[in-house]
Amino acid sequence: MAENGSSDVTTVPDGPDKVRKSVSVDATPSVDEPETDAEPVVGDEITAEDVEDVNCLELDFNHRRLKTIKNLENLKCIERLYLRWNLLKKIENVSTLTTLRELELYDNQITVIENLDCLVNLEVLDLSFNRITHIGGLENLTNLEKLFLCDNKIQKIENINHLKKLQYLELGDNKLRTIENLEGLTNLTSLFLGKNKITKIQNLECLPQLEVFSLQSNRITKLENLEKLTKLEQLYVSENGLKEIEGLENNTELTTLDLSLNKISQIKNVDHLTKLEEFWMNDNEITDWACVEKLTANKQLVTVYLERNPLSKDGAYRRKVMLTLPWLQQLDATMCRPQTESLVLSTSTIKASCLQSPKRCNAVLSCNVP
Predict the structure, then answer these.
(1) Domains of the chain with bracketed CATH
(2) Average of pLDDT values for 78-91?
(3) Residues 95-149: pLDDT tens digits?
(4) Which letter does DSSP use for residue 294 in this model?
(5) Rounded-to-integer distance, Cα 80 and Cα 57, Å
(6) Tens digits of per-residue pLDDT, 281-300?
(7) pLDDT at 338 (0 to 100)
(8) CB 1, CB 60: distance < 8 Å
(9) Do the Cβ atoms of 43 and 64 come closer than 8 Å?
(10) Position 50 confidence tier, pLDDT thresholds 50, 70, 90
């Protein structure tokens, strides 16, 4: 990809008989170009010179302050088109780009999803950070695998049931109130619904392949209706109104569980999660040290967050947790050394041990004694 505003063609082998070509066009002035006092032209357009190579596979028009999409009709092989950070208000003049596989329109001023019917080979569509209020216009995009619609003004999940190949759906930071209309998305593996107004976990039984589920910053008060998600590996429900850990009986594949910033006072119902590696419980209401002992069943734990719970005010907090869970590699934001807190040896003791037994000396030094 070209830097500092230069146009460049890069060739990368993509197989024995295929060459990948990409053209990058950036609005940033080159360091070799003379400086001028002229202001950047608002509403710059894509010119014929920008797409001189009609056989290129990739075009980058990020940060060009473009107001319209045009002059792309001669492209014959384009697969990836990047139009991030512009001033586009409408999706237009892309109907000839039937070879397109990836289209990025992130951070523009688009209000309607439209004019995409001919892009039947599209696999990735990013319309995040726009002004879209309604999901539509995707009827012909049956090959879509990833759809990004975060930070818009969408109030309802709809018109995506036909996207049978969809694997990744991002709808965070919208105005959703209900999880609904996901039937048909049987291949979905990642679903992101954070920062909405959702009050209930529901209608997920149609997503048997789901592995990553995020509901951060919503209005959830109960963990429920997750029993069909038997392949779930990562669950993020921080910043809600949860008071109990429950409803995870069938989610035995979980490796990451984020329950931070809730109102939970007891750690329980996680001892069956034998694959759990990341357990985030900071900013809750844990007061009882017996709760930490409940985690001794989770031998695969690598990282635990408990900071800003009442028990973390204990002066021996870190030492107590490490004595209880000596296999941890990280507690809160700090890495853990091997269980050295209980092995406090003076320099004279180490020297004496070395004189008595060189083998023991080597063992002691390998413990990384403070």
Answers:
(1) 41-121 (3.80.10.10), 132-219 (3.80.10.10), 224-336 (3.80.10.10)
(2) 96
(3) 999 999 999 999 999 999 999 999 999 999 999 999 999 999 999 999 999 999 9
(4) G
(5) 6
(6) 999 999 999 999 999 999 99
(7) 58
(8) yes
(9) no
(10) confident
Distance of CA 38 to the CA centre of its chain: 40
Q: Which two tokens stand for residue 265?
A: 């006072």
User: Residue 317: CB partners within 8 Å, gap ≥ 6?
Assistant: 306, 311
Report the C-alpha gap between 168 and 174 in whole angstroms: 17
Q: Taking phi first (over 0 means left), then psi (-120 to 50 degrees means alpha), and beta for anything else, what does residue 195 get?
A: left
Residue 18 has pLDDT above 50, yes or no: no
Question: If you compute the radius of gyration of the chain from its CA atoms, what whole number of angstroms results?
Answer: 27
Residue of 26, 137, 145 lying closest to 91 (CA atoms) = 137
- What is the crossing angle of helices 358-365 and 347-356, to 10°? 140
SS3 for 323? helix
CB-neighbour burial class of residue 39 (10 A; exposed 0-12, middle 13-18, buried 19+): exposed
Return the residue matching tokens 């384009």. Answer: 78
Q: Which residue has the tokens 């963990």?
A: 223
Tell me: pLDDT of 351 over 50.
Answer: no
CA distance 84 to 48: 20
